[in-house]
UniProtKB/TrEMBL annotation:
Belongs to the short-chain dehydrogenases/reductases (SDR) family. It comes from the Eukaryota. Transmembrane segments: none annotated. This is NAD-binding protein. GO terms for molecular function: oxidoreductase activity, acting on NAD(P)H, oxygen as acceptor; oxidoreductase activity, acting on the CH-OH group of donors, NAD or NADP as acceptor. InterPro entries: NAD(P)-bd_dom_sf, Sc_DH/Rdtase_CS, SDR_fam. Keywords: NADP, Oxidoreductase. It comes from Lyophyllum shimeji. The keyword Oxidoreductase applies.
Length: 338
């Protein structure tokens, strides 16, 4: 081991200059231009926004080209015009709310995957609302169990065959069980939670990712984790839920590193407490929890639906344009504070 390390070091040393550059080749400090007069540092172009130039590049173009029109582009950059999406757990709750957001952002078709054979009344009314927005937007309901890997792959392939593309995936289906002592936690219940919250998230991401690879347009996969993947809710005996969500955080990092080269981005999103059917199971039967959970939130409140959520986003953007990183962080912060 030591000898091979020495060999590597000795090979590397041949590539290094034996001496520092002679002083004569260094420019005296007095001849260097001040920083503010030097040209903006540039890298070879690796990716170009379809809306380029954007951000500061657009401002610089406007300064040098009077015919260039200054106009906001930030919403163009977030537009999902003509995109196709799938969202699991989208018959209600956060999944349905996020499906609606994708449709509002311009997605042409948002496929909502959930367990019941027929969608709920709330889903039907939301779908009708999307139709009325016009622009050819539509929501479709698909009955499937995220625990069925082959079933999920088949549904996504059918969607790909019909739509000719796949751009966005939100894996939101999840379950939370009653308090159960961690030292007595039954194997079958632990397995059930992992099956939906961890394996189901993987199968959903696989199903959409396979279609993204098939069509070669890249895409964006968002895995819904939870604050419970990073912290533990004191006084709540949720060892299965917390463990399942931690796994989702690492799944996102792992998949992001594997799929980045195919221009498929994978990120995780960790909501705080939000009033949905999942949390109503606790809040409706134990009203004191409302005050407790609200006081744990920096804003002193919990909310219903996604309009105002406390949120932590893990944005994994290897080698991405700094404009994109800036936008994502800013929007995440704005969302979490409204
Ligand atoms: N509500 C919160 O406070 C909160 C906080 C953090 C994270 N989350 C996460 O957000 C996601 C959505 O939660 P929610 O609050 O909207 O819950 P919800 O119970 O209202 O909705 C979950 C949906 O997932 C569906 N689902 C469950 N098992 C499924 C399966 N095997 N196959 C397909 N669909 C299945 C349910 O039918 C339901 O429609 C979950 O992953 C949850 O863990 C919620």
């Amino acid at each position: 081991m030591l000898s091979s390390t020495r060999a590597i070091l000795s090979r590397a040393s041949h590539r290094l200059p034996r001496h520092p550059a002679p002083l004569s080749v260094l420019r005296p400090l007095s001849t260097l231009r001040p920083l503010h007069e030097q040209a903006k540092p540039t890298l070879p172009t690796q990716s170009v926004s379809p809306h380029a130039p954007v951000g500061v590049d657009a401002a610089l173009r406007a300064a040098s080209d009077p015919s260039f029109t200054a106009r906001p582009k930030v919403f163009d950059e977030f537009a999902l015009t003509d995109r196709v999406a799938i969202v699991s757990g989208a018959n209600r709750g956060l999944g349905l709310e996020m499906a609606l957001v994708l449709a509002e952002a311009g997605a042409r078709a948002v496929y909502c995957i959930d367990l019941p054979k027929e969608p709920a009344d709330e889903w039907k009314k939301t779908s009708e609302y999307v139709r009325k927005m016009g622009g050819g937007r539509r929501m479709e309901y698909v009955c499937e169990d995220v625990r069925d890997q082959k079933g999920m792959w088949a549904r996504a392939r059918e969607i790909g065959d019909k739509e000719g593309r796949m751009d966005v995936c939100v894996a939101a289906a999840g379950i939370l069980k009653n308090h159960t002592d961690c030292l007595e936690y039954p194997a079958d219940q632990f397995q059930e939670v992992l099956d939906v919250n961890t394996k189901g998230v993987l199968y959903t991401a696989q199903a959409a990712g396979q279609q993204m690879r098939r069509f070669g347009n890249g895409g964006s996969i968002v895995l819904i984790a939870s604050m419970s993947g990073s912290i533990t809710n004191k006084d709540h005996a949720w060892v299965s839920y917390n463990s399942s969500k931690s796994a989702v955080l690492q799944m996102a990092r792992s998949m992001a590193c594997e799929l980045g080269r195919e221009n498929i981005r994978v990120n995780s999103l960790s909501p705080g407490h939000i009033y949905t059917n999942m949390t109503a199971a606790y809040l409706d039967s134990q009203p004191h929890l409302l005050e407790k959970w609200s006081s744990l939130n920096p804003m002193g409140r919990i909310v219903s639906a996604l309009g105002a959520i406390s949120l932590s986003v893990e944005v994994i953007t290897p080698g991405k344009h700094c404009r994109l990183v800036g936008l994502l962080y800013l929007f995440a912060c704005i969302l979490s504070s409204t």
